Hints:
- A hairpin with a 2-residue loop joins strand 8 and strand 9 (219-225).
- The protein has one domain (2-251): 3-Layer(aba) Sandwich (Rossmann fold).
- By secondary structure, the protein is an alpha/beta fold.
- The radius of gyration is 18 Å and the shape is globular.
- It contains nine helices and nine strands.
- The strands form two sheets. A six-stranded mixed β-sheet has the order 5-6-7-3-8-9, sandwiched between helices. A three-stranded antiparallel β-sheet has the order 2-1-4, covered by helices on one side.
- The chain binds adenosine-5'-triphosphate.
Amino acid sequence: MAILEIKDLSKVYQGPVPYEALKKIDLKVEAGEFVSIMGPSGSGKTTLLNMVATLDKPTAGVVLINGHNPHELSKNDLAEFRRKELGFVFQNFNLLPTLTVEENIMLPLTLDDESVMLMKEKTQDIMEELGILPIRDKRTYEISGGESQRVAIARALIHRPSLILADEPTGNLDSRSAGNVMHLLEKFNDERQVTTLMVTHDAVSASYSQRVVFIKDGNFFNEIYCGDDRERFYQKILDVLAHLGGTNHEFQATRRT
Length: 257
Ligand SMILES: Nc1ncnc2c1ncn2[C@@H]1O[C@H](COP(=O)(O)OP(=O)(O)OP(=O)(O)O)[C@@H](O)[C@H]1O
């Protein structure tokens, strides 16, 4: 079953000179899949993610999440749909500095009228799973980038959404923390079949997914599957990136030694 289905999706940014950032993109993400989106700077990755995240409306085409088109919902229904169906992990973590780690993670549940005991239990479980119990009472400015992203992942997962949307989740992390974060996303995908769509410039991060979809100039360019040889998949990602053009800075496409 497809958790996400995108059909003929186009986006034209209006302005003095209208700009077509996405041109009739089709994409299906099956339940339990982990898919990365890559492409040169300006190719339309964030535009695509924003349409799926319902942060912006498509000019044409359809987004179906679990069979429902969120762009047809009223403002109130959309807020609830987003809260229930989607989990977000951003490059800059988007945590609330006035709250503790535990309170940040619990936040999505407080909007759902759950009992405090149940909320605490669920929060405790996910903190334990992500190894962040020791920092539960800290404020977000007292923890590291890697810890912050683990808190953000806990917050994204706690209400068990249908789809996790990750926008450059390792973009602000050193390679060790980035590796930890990718291991966690991979683990939740593996063990709980959490369907994940991630935008990244980083070939190493992309190599943790099962499929990479490349876009260029708003068009579908190519897609490759991991299979059972992750190292080979990584090299294949680098090859497509080299073919696509773009700078090393854009792709952080350093070959592993
Ligand atoms: N609000 C907007 N108004 C007009 N043009 C926009 C707007 N947002 C994005 N664009 C343009 O649409 C194109 C695609 O942008 P988008 O941010 O989706 O690319 P991207 O692949 O995510 O790039 P990057 O990797 O640099 O983040 C770019 O040419 C960009 O300048």
